[in-house]
């Protein structure tokens, strides 16, 4: 965006920079936003492998009716831990914590985030929360079995070890709030001179909207989790019908946060896609302002749709209609984004590279996820599909498909910048297509199974569901193979790949104007921004 | 926006830290906001029980604590003005007064809770369960909300003591007092929440 940043040749990159500490301490005590981004990347990768293996084991249990490799209690523990890990430890921090930390300051032309020490604190809180959550597996009355939603009254009646799980989720919420707060202030205060709000790239824009959701929605679930803790410890009765409490109230309070949390997961993913597509289409993004407005609209309307998780829980008719119509409204800004991405590609001379494959497959799975969301948002069909495998398929298409494809797209897009190395494009493409085929094979049969009536969260099923489950379990093996190829290729390339150029894809945003990998302070001189972010003219 | 060059991350932006603090205050308000929702729903469901249970609380102690917190908000606001005028001694004295008042609040709270508990009114107690659902929920909310608020007072005590130390060591001074100002903002928030808790539990009958 600005011209020539000559810099001293000998300035070490952020990977090599030597600070006050040595060895691993140079990383875990670093306040550099880039190192913190990588700390999150490695933590998330570790947890993801655990979560994915849990998922695989559940699919192996479901490969045929009856007990195969685990009993009902183990299965309950598995889906609970799988959900907690995937939601709280992976997709909620996900793109903001990894790529937001790494690229937000660079993309807006700053040297770091507004509060670097607070940023490091967030990572430590994340790690502490993860640790507390995981202790629930090995202590007390055994692994929690409520599902990741901790629904009352079961969550304070089950003899399993709920306290650490709920406390850990509370701490993770704190970490999430601090990251969001940090990003909002960074965007307000640290944009480079000349970078007006409408010259800011779309990934920072999506982080801005996400930051607000994190700040506004998370405290509600925070206090709700505290109330669950109080229920278990003090037997107060907030959600206990025997003492006059209302379990449905718990569901409301929980989803007031946890529905907006879905947008914490998907908005940064959409932001990353909005970066990848113009770069490989060599074109200004179509409808830049429309994408921004739709981002804010999704964040805003997303607050008022939580009731669609509770259509069968008991609500007044008026509430049902209202939540249903609002749910349909969210589809509009989401569709606007899809139209914009597709229009950007229209008549463009597209360069087919791995990040672009991830981006277009994101659009594909996101649309399937989105449309199936409308099926669930409609009142009549919801009654039939509630708590079936259809729901499982839907949210995996959005949460895993949406966030996961965008995360890996972003990973392949920014990899040369982060590590200063190229990855093996052949293996990257093989990894992508395996992942994609596995994903579709795993989750599409679940739509069919759900419509046929197979409930979720059971370790067993009747014979009639066998066929779909075989295909689905088979898909999970392909998917795991795809994940393994992608991870192995990237890890190997990060260690021993060829050196990458400063701007391998011809991107036009600011991160491509600093060396790969960037030096500690990103810019020698804060750039002066004179043009929009996707100027390919 | 100020930005220092060189190889360090030293970067000072008081405006940024104030925005950060305000955002944090939003999150705190929403944290209690969730509880206010729960309170209003259960009050709507059990109006008579809530009214009678509120009569059990000691309005005099509640009023005393309200006055204490209001004065403490004033003293911390004055300490910021004193800092701006460069009067270090007065700043420390006023912060000390704030600390003292916060402690006084907690002492009052201790005796108030103590007397309720000695009457058998605490979460999960048999006596409360005999009274019925409305009373159980009222006292559950009372202990939970005032307890969470008291926790904020305790955190405030630690933070104010820390700021006093920084003022004493002149790490906070008349041209660099964002930390003191943000502590003041936090303390006003704690005060504000009490301003809502007091009528909801003690006065609305």
Brief overview, please?
By secondary structure, chain A is an all-alpha fold. Chain A has helices spanning 25-28, 33-61, 72-91, 94-107, 116-135, 162-189, 202-234, 247-281, 288-301, 317-345, 354-377, 379-385, 389-419, 425-452, 466-496.
Write structural notes for this entry:
The complex is a heterodimer of chains A (537) and B (205). Chain A is mainly alpha-helical and 537 residues long. Chain A has a single domain, classed as Cytochrome c oxidase-like, subunit I domain (Cytochrome C Oxidase, Chain A, Up-down Bundle), CATH 1.20.210.10. Chain A is built from 15 helices and no strands. Residues 1-9 of chain A have low confidence and may be disordered. Chain B is mainly α. The longest helix of chain B has 36 residues, at 133-168. Chain B has a single domain, classed as Four Helix Bundle (Hemerythrin (Met), subunit A) (Up-down Bundle), CATH 1.20.120. In chain B, α1 runs antiparallel to α6 (133-168) and α1 (14-45) runs parallel beside α7.
Walk me through the topology.
The complex is a heterodimer of chains A (537) and B (205).
Chain A: H1 25-28, H2 33-61, H3 72-91, H4 94-107, H5 116-135, H6 162-189, H7 202-234, H8 247-281, H9 288-301, H10 317-345, H11 354-377, H12 379-385, H13 389-419, H14 425-452, H15 466-496
Helix pairs in contact in A: 2-3, 2-4, 2-5, 2-15, 4-6, 4-7, 4-8, 4-13, 5-6, 6-7, 7-8, 7-9, 8-10, 8-11, 8-13, 9-10, 10-11, 11-13, 11-14, 13-14, 14-15
Chain B: H1 14-45, H2 47-55, H3 59-84, H4 88-118, H5 126-131, H6 133-168, H7 178-203
Helix pairs in contact in B: 1-6, 1-7, 2-6, 3-4, 3-7, 4-6, 6-7
Please tag this protein with its features.
heterodimer, A: 537 residues, mainly alpha, Cytochrome C Oxidase, Chain A, disordered N terminus, B: 205 residues, Four Helix Bundle (Hemerythrin (Met), subunit A), 7 helices, 81% helix, 0% strand
Helix content of chain A: 55-70%
CATH topology of chain A: Cytochrome C Oxidase, Chain A
CATH topology assignment of chain B:
Four Helix Bundle (Hemerythrin (Met), subunit A)
The number of distinct structural domains of chain B comes to 1
What is the CATH H-level superfamily of chain B? Cytochrome c oxidase, subunit III, four-helix bundle
Low-confidence stretches of chain A: 1-9
Radius of gyration of chain B: 20 Å
- Radius of gyration of chain A from CA coordinates: 23 Å
**Mind describing the biggest β-sheet of chain A?**
none
The residue-averaged pLDDT of chain A reads 93
Average per-residue pLDDT of chain B, rounded, comes to 91
Instruction: Determine the number of helices of chain B (DSSP H or I, runs of at least 4 residues).
Output: 7
* Unreliable segments of 5+ consecutive residues of chain B: 1-9
SSE class of chain B: mainly alpha
Output the CATH homologous superfamily of chain A.
Cytochrome c oxidase-like, subunit I domain
User: What class would the helix/strand composition of chain A place it in?
Assistant: mainly alpha
CATH architecture tag of chain B: Up-down Bundle
Count of beta strands of chain B: 0
The appropriate CATH architecture of chain A is Up-down Bundle
């Amino acid at each position: 965006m600005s011209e020539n940043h000559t810099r001293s040749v000998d300035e070490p990159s952020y990977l090599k920079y030597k600070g006050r500490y040595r060895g691993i301490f140079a990383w875990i005590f670093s306040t550099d936003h880039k190192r913190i981004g990588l700390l999150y990347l490695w933590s998330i990768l570790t947890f993801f492998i655990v979560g994915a293996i849990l998922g695989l084991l559940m699919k192996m249990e479901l490969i045929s009716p009856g007990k195969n490799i685990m009993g009902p209690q183990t299965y309950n523990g598995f889906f609970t831990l799988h959900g907690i890990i995937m939601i709280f430890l992976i997709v909620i921090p996900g793109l903001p914590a990894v790529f937001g930390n790494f690229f937000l300051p660079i993309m807006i032309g700053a040297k770091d985030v507004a509060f670097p020490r607070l940023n490091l604190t967030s990572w430590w809180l994340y790690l502490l929360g993860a640790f507390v959550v995981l202790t629930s597996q090995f202590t007390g009355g055994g692994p929690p079995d409520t599902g990741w939603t901790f629904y009352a009254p079961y969550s304070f009646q089950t003899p399993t070890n709920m306290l650490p799980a709920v406390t850990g989720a509370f701490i993770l919420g704190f970490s999430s709030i601090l990251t969001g707060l940090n990003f909002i202030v960074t965007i307000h205060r640290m944009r480079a001179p000349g970078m007006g709000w409408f010259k800011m790239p779309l990934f920072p824009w999506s982080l801005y909207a996400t930051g607000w959701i994190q700040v506004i929605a998370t405290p509600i679930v925070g206090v709700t989790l505290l109330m669950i803790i109080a229920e278990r410890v003090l037997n107060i009765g907030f959600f206990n019908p025997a003492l006059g409490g209302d379990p449905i109230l718990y569901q409301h309070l929980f989803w007031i946060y946890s529905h907006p949390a879905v947008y914490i997961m998907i908005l940064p993913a959409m932001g990353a896609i909005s970066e990848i597509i113009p770069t490989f289409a060599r074109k200004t993004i179509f409808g830049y302002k429309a994408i921004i407005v739709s981002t804010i609209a999704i964040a805003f309307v997303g607050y008022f749709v939580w009731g669609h998780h509770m259509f069968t829980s008991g609500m007044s008719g008026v509430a049902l209609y209202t939540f249903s119509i609002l749910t349909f409204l969210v589809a509009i800004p989401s569709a606007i984004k899809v139209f914009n991405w597709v229009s950007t590609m229209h008549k463009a001379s597209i360069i087919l590279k791995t990040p672009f494959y991830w981006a277009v497959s994101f659009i594909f799975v996101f649309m399937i996820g989105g449309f199936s969301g409308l099926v669930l948002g409609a009142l009549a069909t919801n009654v039939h599909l509630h708590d079936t495998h259809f729901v499982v398929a839907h949210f995996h298409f959005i949460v895993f498909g949406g966030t996961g494809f965008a995360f890996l797209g972003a990973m392949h897009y920014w990899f040369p910048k982060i590590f200063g190395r190229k990855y093996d494009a052949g293996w990257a493409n093989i990894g992508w297509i395996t992942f994609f085929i596995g994903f579709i094979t795993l989750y599409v049969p679940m739509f069919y199974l759900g419509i046929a009536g197979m409930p979720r969260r059971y370790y067993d099923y009747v014979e009639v569901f066998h066929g779909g489950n075989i295909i689905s379990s088979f898909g999970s093996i392909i998917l795991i193979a795809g994940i393994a190829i992608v991870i192995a290729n990237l890890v190997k390339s990060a260690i021993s790949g060829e050196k990458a150029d400063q701007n391998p894809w011809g991107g036009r945003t600011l991160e491509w104007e600093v060396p790969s990998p960037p030096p500690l302070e990103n810019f020698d001189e804060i750039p002066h921004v004179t043009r929009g972010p996707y100027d390919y003219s | 926006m100020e930005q220092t060059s060189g190889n360090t991350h030293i970067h000072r932006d008081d405006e940024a830290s104030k925005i950060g603090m305000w955002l944090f205050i939003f999150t705190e308000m929403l944290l209690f906001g969730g509880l206010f929702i729960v309170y209003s729903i259960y009050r709507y469901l059990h109006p008579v029980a809530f009214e009678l249970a509120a009569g059990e609380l000691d309005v005099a102690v509640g009023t005393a604590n309200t006055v204490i917190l209001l004065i403490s908000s004033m003293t911390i606001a004055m300490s910021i003005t004193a800092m701006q005028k460069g009067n270090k001694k007065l700043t420390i004295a006023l912060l000390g007064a704030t600390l003292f008042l916060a402690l006084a609040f907690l002492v009052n709270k201790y005796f108030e809770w103590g007397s309720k508990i000695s009457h058998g009114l605490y979460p999960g107690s048999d006596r409360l369960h005999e009274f019925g659902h409305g009373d159980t929920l009222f006292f559950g909310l009372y202990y939970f909300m005032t307890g969470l608020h008291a926790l904020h007072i305790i955190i405030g005590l630690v933070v104010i003591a820390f700021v006093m130390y920084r003022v004493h060591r002149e790490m906070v001074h008349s041209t660099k007092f964002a930390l003191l100002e943000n502590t003041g903002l936090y303390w006003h928030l704690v005060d504000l929440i009490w301003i809502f808790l007091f009528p909801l539990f003690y006065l609305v009958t």
